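Bit of a strange request maybe. I'm writing a small parser for structure token strings and I need a real example to test against, not something I typed by hand. Could someone generate the tokens for this chain?
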Amino acid sequence: MKYILFIVLNFYTINIVRSQLISVTVELNRKHVIGGIESFDRSKFITTHASIFEGDSFNEEEKLNYLLFGLDTYFGRSTGDITTNISLIDKNEMPIIGLATKEAYKSFKTMHIYESHEDLILACQAKIYQDLNKDGVTMGIKVGTYFNDYFGNGGETGPPKPKYFEVFNEPLWDYVDYHAYYGNPISNEEEVIDSIFRFYREAAIEIKKLNPELQVGGYCAAFPDLELGNFCQWDQRWKKFIDSCGSYMDFYSFHLYDFPGFSNGLKKFRKGGNMEATMDMIAQYDYLVHNSIKPFIISEYGSQLQDWYNQPWTPFRDWLILKAFSSMMVQYMERPDVILKAIPFAVFKALWGGGSAIPYPWRLMRNTDEPNSFSGKWVWTEVIKFYQLWSNVCGIKLDTRSSDLDLQVDAYLNNDKVYLILNNIDFKDVTVKIKNLGLGDCTIDSVFIKHLHLVGDKPVLDSLYYTSIPELVNIGAEATMILEYTLNKNLVPDQSLNETKYYADSYKHSIKMDVTDTFRINQVRVGTKGYATLRVGIGRNHGLSLHPDVKFNNVDVQVPTDYRGDSQDDRETFFGMLEIDVPYASLRNQNYLTITFPDTGGFISSVALQVFDIQEN
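Reply from user aminoacidic:
Good idea to test on real output. This should exercise your parser:
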């Protein structure tokens, strides 16, 4: 990191780009509570796809101490040892081998100190489906036995037992999509999907018999494109999984990746509206079926790198990973009541993942001689900058607003510290004016700013100190900035913003020209003041209108022409989210809304209402 001391207010104001000025408002005296959750949980969000048990971490205590304790990061997921054990070991032998495992861990004292920073999801690799002859009952019995025999409560009792288990990793990618991707689609796709979901259901039932406290979920979907085939993928996959397995799941899990380059330059981004539409559709249908919403685990997320496959390590490729991490995580942070864990796909050395000529791309460590040679000492890749950027963020969530959906904003208060996050998902630099409200008799004594952005072909994490807040800041394209205010004293919010999301009574309406679709959103609790946002998921062919007429309780509401994220030109169709402000005064306990498009095609995939009630503490 580069550290620069500025005494005067010249931060980025010298190089302000000619662009529309974005306004950001921070209500420092108003905490933001979502589903009863008001604080930033680092063990949920600041994670890595690794565990104590991995050989990659052996003899790297200095780096582990820095990552876990210095940067306050948490182990998140493992798919290795459990797959081997479930595949090869008879359940009758598990107590013996499990005891040996506990004894080995007991003597492995140097790793015990990391238990406080381990909150693991375990998952088997997809080969388990074939290894166990597609028998979910056998799978469930073996997994249940494994969890009982191999784990203790930490320290000398044995490894701490994980809380979460995904039956197996990315099943439909391995057994359905992989074949189509390489030009040989299977003829019995529906039969295979039914078999895999039956395996999931059977395994979950048996696991819960032996481990009722273990949270079991899935289906660990890779690259879910719900809108494909005019939402045929939704019907054949997620809808079917929720219908057939949802009652047996404790959570739903999936993987979301940006595709910044494939087929020589095409781009498909998740960040922005596509992520919102995907998560809202799953949540709304689950609510309609089960009258509740199961939590989500995003057990992998980040960036795919097709146009850079079969290439040695470069700092620029790490940038593609970095910019996806922050953009996606800020969106997950908007759902702390629904997200159980979110794991950025960053592993340690990944010695298992590639040859010496072309090492695995998604690593936290590399050899010093790369890219010229796979040799030398182990050092951090540029990906460590994600954890350095987010190292201090903690505290109570605050009420924030941005005038542009492509500038994502969040903030947290921890006594006399405020952490303001500005994440730019636009492909150009933006200029931001920050308005800080609710300081009361507090003053801002200093500001420490981190800015993770691309300079040339390398990600740079600038760190700059100021004695007061700059009037304007400039944020790089697809970059993230975190401003840490130091106040002259502790600040205690005297207001609360209580956010609740209500889903409509129906979903997935086919769009027909000039035909009005009607939705009802009932049992809405309305306070005395606040604001509200209508969320309308849309999947349509390119070129069709994204600007319907909307009435809310018979009042015309203004539908924005802008939406979160890019125009998705390289995706097969557009699948995104309209976020429409509605007057708070128009809210009722029973709400009625209509949506009318001027042309035919596609679906309204989901409809929800976010209500933000402001209350005095």
